[in-house]
Specification:
- With 231 residues, this protein is mostly beta strands.
- 8% of the residues lie in helices and 21% in strands.
- The chain contains two helices and 15 strands.
- Strands 1-15-2 form a three-stranded antiparallel beta sheet, with no helix packed on it.
Length: 231
């Protein structure tokens, strides 16, 4: 930006610049800036490690909970790069990080469900075969006329005197099912489950909500008041 333009904007804004995150900002306060830099008096909240003597007031509020080493007189700023702040509770202490931008596919948390399946028992290499059999008794028959559940049996007499024990398909009379018929089926086949989805089983799932990138800044000594602990 040209120097003349900057001077013009400064003149319009007044001789006393506003505090970076508002006139009532406190040291350690977080604010969001739509521009491409954090204003004077603030630092980018990107996890930078600072020397304690760079900002003793901010260090007194943050300590080393966000990084740094007390024995080396350093402290860290919060790192909000690709993260969002949430309120604390007993299971989430201040400065604790949690969460991930992706989740791995797996069955641990998958609800119980079913898939459609198709069974194809016959193929060119594994044809299905069925061999029906009719059981016949080797004892002498008792019925001249077959009754439901009867078996084929040995007829009485010999030679031409034998009683016929079956009839042609077009013969008059009621048809009854014979007992002892079994139809064992042999063959091989493979049930086929219909696949759902296109991603590989180990593909991570993106769980990032809609977002827009902006600069997140933390107020330092030059940008706000030192907060008073009410407790």
């Amino acid at each position: 930006m040209a120097a003349a333009t900057v001077a013009g904007i400064t003149a319009m804004a007044g001789s006393t610049p506003a505090q970076a995150c508002g006139y009532g900002a406190y040291i350690g306060q977080i604010c969001i800036v739509a521009g491409n830099f954090c204003p004077e008096g603030t630092y980018n909240a990107t996890g930078t490690i600072m020397a304690v003597n760079q900002d003793q007031a901010l260090y007194s509020l943050l300590g080393t909970r966000y990084g740094g080493n007390q024995s080396q007189a350093t402290f860290g700023l919060p790192n909000l790069t690709l993260r969002m702040p949430v309120g604390t509770q007993s299971s989430l202490a201040i400065a604790t990080k949690r969460g991930t931008s992706t989740a791995q596919m797996g069955t641990a948390n998958l609800p119980t469900h079913t898939h459609g399946a198709t069974y194809s028992p016959q193929s060119a290499t594994n044809p299905l075969s069925m061999t029906p059999t009719v059981a016949a008794s080797q004892s002498t028959g008792n019925d001249k006329i077959p009754n439901a559940g009867d078996y084929l049996a040995v007829t009485i007499g010999s030679g031409t005197a034998q009683w016929p024990h079956y009839a042609a398909a077009n013969a008059a009379g009621a048809m009854v099912p014979l007992g002892g018929v079994t139809s064992p089926i042999s063959g091989t086949g493979t049930p086929v489950l219909t696949p759902t989805g296109a991603a590989a089983p180990t593909s991570p799932i993106n769980i990032i909500p809609p977002q827009v990138g902006m600069n997140i800044c933390i107020v330092g000594t030059g940008g706000g008041y030192y907060p008073v602990n009410p407790n």
